[in-house]
Amino acid sequence: MSRDTIFQKIRSALEPIKEKAAHPGFEEAMLISPVRTAGSPVEAFSRNFTTVNGRVMSTLEEVIDLLRAQNHQVGYCDPSLMETLGRPLADAGFEVRTEYCRENYDDYDFGITRATGGIAETGSIILDDAHTSDRLAALSPWVHIAVLSRAAIHPSVPAAIAHLGSSRNIIWVTGPSKTADVEGILIEGVHGPGEQIAFLVD
Amino acid sequence: MIDRQPIDTYARQISDEKQTSVITGSTASTDKRFNALFTDYADPDSLRKLAAKIKDHTLHHLDTYLEQAEASLQRNGVTVHFADSGDDARETVLNILRGHEVTQLTKSKSMASEEIHLNPYLIENGIEVLESDLGEFIIQLDGDEPSHIVRPIIHKNRREIARTFQREGIAEDYNDDPGTITRRARVHLREKYMLAQAVITGGNFISAESGRLVLVTNEGNTRFGMAPSKVHIALVGIEKLVPTDRDLGVFLNLLGRSATGQQLTVYTEFISGPKDDSQPSGPEHMHVVFMNHGRTDVLDSNCREILRCIRCSACQNVCPVYRQASGHAYRSPYGGPIGAVLSPLLFGDRFPELADLPKASSLCGACNEVCPVDIPIPDLLLRLRDKAKRAHIPQPGDLPMTPFATLATSPSLWRTAMTMSKAMNHLPIQVAPVRPLQDWLGQRTLPDWHGGDFRKWLKARKEK
Amino acid sequence: MVSTPRPVGRKVLFMATCLCDAFYDDAARASVELLEHLGVEVVFPDDQTCCGQPAFNSGDWPSSRKVAKHAAKVFAGDLPVIVPSGSCAAMHFHGHRLQFEECPDAEVESLAHRTWEIIDFIVNGLGIKTWDGEFENPTRLAFHRSCHTRGTDTGEAVTTLLSSIRRAEVVPFGQTDQCCGFGGTFSVTFPHISGRMGSLKLDHIMESRPDLLVSADMSCLMHLTGLARVQGRPIPHLHVVQVLRDTLMTARK
């Protein structure tokens, strides 16, 4: 049986190692980039999220302008975010659905979902399955709008890891989906969104 | 007549176009890595050293951590499998798929699966497999092999890719704009995602403490593949463990920066089990297959530091030999310095055939300097050269060293030879007996021989 | 990699290296003259030969161990061993340790502990931080940082000294950290790749329009200038110690 064989082989390989390395231990401060975390978490988040070609927004007008400029019409909104963004967008003339129908994934130009947190140091948004209404709604539409509470922004990667929580599936998203496979040229919107928006709320 | 080394011969034959792609791509990645690390940290070296120590600690206690990881994964509802050989791993994956009646799946880039040629095996057994990473997708269309760990198609240019898309019916017309190529792949692949019943991934890290599996991608293909699938299989090398979640911070900080100069890869996913009731989507079944495939042989060798590797490709990018020869010259999924060490060890039965790989280095040490886990690659290359020699594996181009050792341990002989060799000044190049030496002198001139002159000068001074 | 602290003293053993023994006698002479100028007594053990690197790098460790033991005997004692080559020095303080890790040898270990690359010795051992030399005319120096000085203090030491010479300008060039492609036996068994690496290095160096190519390793210079001559772009070149000696003499004129 493979399991026993593997453990046997590991133990016999480790046997001759006389001094086994101890875990070095470390201060979290050493992992944190001073340049990237300068300023308040919200400032650092905004700066770094922009650097990775995300867009930080905090008003309805900004969202409407972008959607109109890119000619997007139909979108999905997490039912719990209807008051925040869904209804105002519907009022502005967009078609906003509260059910994400997988079979018609191509119908959606934009998806509005909840981010459970952010990471200032890297400009990342955190999506957590236990609190995000639909995974695909954050991935399949060209525009993903993550509604993010300013207070939920962690200052650094180690802080975000310390607060990972117990959800079965957590994902950190740092900018639009991208590739440089073709001649090293950066192209955004490979499988996931070409536009990643953090909509900051209090 | 003594022959050239195979990698040198390969490098001589590749087209200028391919070589330009590889040199430009790898050089750019090296620059991005440098900028990211040195802008962000005052002393990035201390991070590398820390990561190396954590990895060594983990490897030295691998039995403990593997058992702990197994228990954590099981606690999270994951089915854990162990596969000792490549055959075991392939069969295990196939059996899982059959157990769930899977006939169609998507796969995200996994070096472990490349090692054991998983795709052709599954396809032979009637499973439809689609690579979803853009580069791997193109490799699959072309029946090609990846030539770089992070950028599998670094050896291809846009024109080749556009022709492939046209030939394979992905697009009706020829268009080599990288944006258009990407858009076309997007449309084509998302249809397939929706039909897939399972997704196969690798694993970048597993935290033994929590059983979290960490997957990183830039494209989001893993995430997309997983959204509609019912079954997730992660094929993970047994050395991919880290002790705790807290340790993950060290490696995530280094991986993106070392690979592509990103602070973090776009999608960093932490998966700790199949979907539970609180989740709207995700696979209902999750399997982790821990694969050995030669890793314990490496652990048992004097090159075990290579198991620290986190597959970032920084050593490939910076290696001047890789830049000239490209990844395929290394005849395994791992090209460049990492491959020159890992392949002869991992594919132990192919050691004689791969024993030339460790020779493919001027020992310049750039690979060690950029390595996020501080692997002393040049030392390991040298140990493998020693190993090959002890195993009496003949190496093309090797010059006999016994006469040299005799000369260099016989001072009076040495001193005489120094003055005698002045004759070299009068020898035409053509007289040099071996082909490599002719190559050498064809490209360079030697300086004039001044053998023994320094000693004479010293002596004359003393006599004054 | 380098042992610290290594012995410093006003009497040293000098290892000329086989390359200076065979081709570059003036680099060895300059080393001796320089050390003596700095008040250091130089002893040259006449039985010295080579560091053993060719056999070591080609994987023939039984052969290279023999050469290493010979060197360890020739340079026995407790005096610092000074080498005008980053590569041969690294062989002493790193390579030997590697090939003797399974059969430790006290003499070899002692040699490893006492070996200095010459510029490292001058700057970090003797504490000389500026150089009272001058060029007659403004001179652009391209300093090739050889790979075996990676992770040591030599590179910075050389730049420090060269920059302090009057009318000297150390000019930067692209991809400074890339290897020149020599690698000893590597250049014989990988002639194509080695040549391409060297040409690439030359392209970068030439772009900086240097008057003089300088290095702490004659092996790199032999390869690079040998290529340059065949390619019809010859370039004057000197070991750092030659530059230091010559500019000092100019200053004293």
Notes on the structure:
The complex is a heterotrimer of chains A (202), B (464) and C (253). In chain A, strand 2, helix 5 and strand 3 form a beta-alpha-beta unit. Chain A is an alpha/beta fold. In chain A, the strands form three sheets. Chain A has a six-stranded parallel beta sheet with strand order 1-12-7-4-2-3. Chain A is 27% helix and 24% strand. With 464 residues, chain B is α/β, with parallel strands linked by helices. Chain B has helices at 6-13, 16-40, 44-60, 62-75, 86-99, 111-115, 118-124, 134-142, 158-167, 178-195, 221-226, 245-260, 295-299, 314-318, 320-325, 336-346, 351-354, 366-370, 377-390, 402-408, 411-420, 435-443, 453-463, and strands spanning 79-83, 104-107, 128-131, 198-201, 205-207, 213-217, 231-237, 241-242, 267-271, 285-291. Chain B has a six-stranded parallel beta sheet, with helices on both faces. The two termini of chain B are 50 Å apart. Chain C is 49% helix and 14% strand. Chain C contains twelve helices and eight strands. Chain C is globular.
Summarize the entry for a quick read.
By secondary structure, chain A is α/β, with parallel strands linked by helices. Chain A has helices at residues 2-14, 34-37, 41-51, 60-69, 82-91, 157-162; strands spanning 55-57, 74-77, 95-97, 110-114, 117-119, 124-128, 143-149, 153-154, 169-173, 178-179, 187-188, 195-201. Chain A is built from six helices and twelve strands.
